[in-house]
Amino acid sequence: MALAPLYLAGFTTAFGAHGVASVLGSESDDIGMSLLAFGAVLALYDVAEVFLKPVFGVLSDRIGVKPVILGGLIAFAAASAVALFVATPLALALVRLGQGAAASAFSPSSSAAVARLAGDELLGRYFGRYGAWKSMGYMLGPILGIWLAYAFGLQAVYGALVVLALIAASAVALRVPHLPPLPKSRATVRDLFAQITARSFLIPTLVLATSTAILGVAVGFLPLLAVRLDLHPLVGAVAVAVLALASALIQPVAGNARDRGRLRTGSGTAAGLALATGALLLLALAPGTVSLFLAAVGIGVMIGIVTPLAFAHLAASTPPERMGRTMGSAELGRELGDAAGPLVVGGVATIAGVPFGLGILAVLTAGVGASAWGMLRREPVTRPR
Questions:
Q1: pLDDT tens profile 342-385
Q2: CB under 8 A, 24+ apart: contacts of 247-250
Q3: Residue ranges of the chain assigned to CATH 1.20.1250.20
Q4: Domain spanning 187-385 has what CATH number?
Q5: pTM listed for this prediction
């Protein structure tokens, strides 16, 4: 199947992002990395993606998505291979930066390829499957990464990433058809401004940014709350895994429901964000073992609903010749949300406590959900030409 290698590419970037982060956290003392250095190294992946995803999205429109995906996967393997020979903090920082830059190439280009190959009537189904594979990468990355590091050493993790990226690249080269760039009219700065401020782009991207902000908060604060509740540290990690599993299971279901007309973007997105609002308020007002896992499931279901709906809406609203730019810009929105969510909650929590931080995020989430309900009621049926 032509789309399967793209799913594997999505799994690769998710595995690399969360798997390496978890491993570096568990090994930071052994490799002489301070907390400040550890935080800076983790941030390099996202910093590269923020700056480069829109660039590579535009490039994929100009030269075709397949060369950009292949180049990104090969570059990801090459960057990961450096850690097989040098594992100093500086080298690992450069590796992390290189991985982020490479993922910036093949991640939005893969989304654009999914949109072009899926066709107008199956956008939800295939974006649901693509998102499910990424969720599995987020879930399995920390588990497999830490196991490999403890069983065989730090280099084994990077070796696995090299092999995974090369397998994905080979599959893309053999199975994904050539998708040549499509002719398009010359775009001006005014055209770009009109696109990024259009409701069909702005609201789904805001939804993706919000959902990713909540995910970033959950990944950090579920383990923190577990420790504050005097639970075993693994309880928080299991809660995050439950979140990722719920997301992976729900995304294909939500995507199929969207394609069959049983789930609309506006109502589905609003319902998902309302569920996340409730989960955040539950954590803020009644923290406990049960509420920890209920919130994890709620947030996972939210991500499983809104992610395929938002991406399918973006794809259905975008001319095929500009799909890379749209997906790159939308991915930029997700990265900004991933950074902003923990910053907002952490900043408020520092002043007023964790419950207030989670409460503020819940209010913001409810506001975005209301906006989505009001502005995304009309579903694009076919892409504009």
A1: 888 888 888 888 899 999 999 999 999 999 988 776 555 444 44
A2: 247/131, 247/132, 247/135, 247/138, 247/300, 247/301, 247/303, 247/304, 247/307, 248/131, 248/132, 248/133, 248/135, 248/136, 248/139, 248/304, 249/132, 249/304, 250/300, 250/301, 250/303, 250/304, 250/305
A3: 1-181, 187-385
A4: 1.20.1250.20
A5: 0.82
